[in-house]
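Two records follow; treat each independently.
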Amino acid sequence: MKLKVLPPTLRKNNRYLVIDIKITSPIDKDDVVNIIWDACIRFQGECMTSNFNLWVMRFYECDKNDEYYSYKSIVRCQRDYVEEVRSSFALVNKYNGNKLAITTVGLSGTIKASKKFI
């Protein structure tokens, strides 16, 4: 039996956040996933975070400065909860004892359009 695909009118609308991560130690994509989920659960709670539909789509290593490592990532979230996700990212300042800063660089409706912020 073939599964039916939901029509576009019934699908959840997503937005793609391009975030800039600056941290004092090197990290990988799994660490970014942990940082994002911990931030949202800590500041919004489990029930609210389950509605966000969070997913790390892309992860880019940018450069290393004398003081910090810089990374960029594209994160998918549901359209109705963009402000809650952004506020959770802004409130994070440490990960595993290392200083951390996450800023939102851009917001887009597609992955292709979000790549212009990278």
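The next record belongs to a different protein.
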Amino acid sequence: MVIAVDKQPDQEGIVLTPEQKRARRQRSVALAILLAVLAILFYVVTLVKGPGVLNRPL
């Protein structure tokens, strides 16, 4: 049995308002900044610990 699903070509799906687009962009920028700060923090902590962080027993 085959069930056909009609897709209407005039529907574009979900259309965001300008306020929603602005909020999405702000969230994306905030997440990018947070990720960059976290990466820099890990790098700085590694530098502060020095090369001893690599000399550990396996």
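Discussion point: The mean pLDDT is 84. How would you locate this feature using only the token line?
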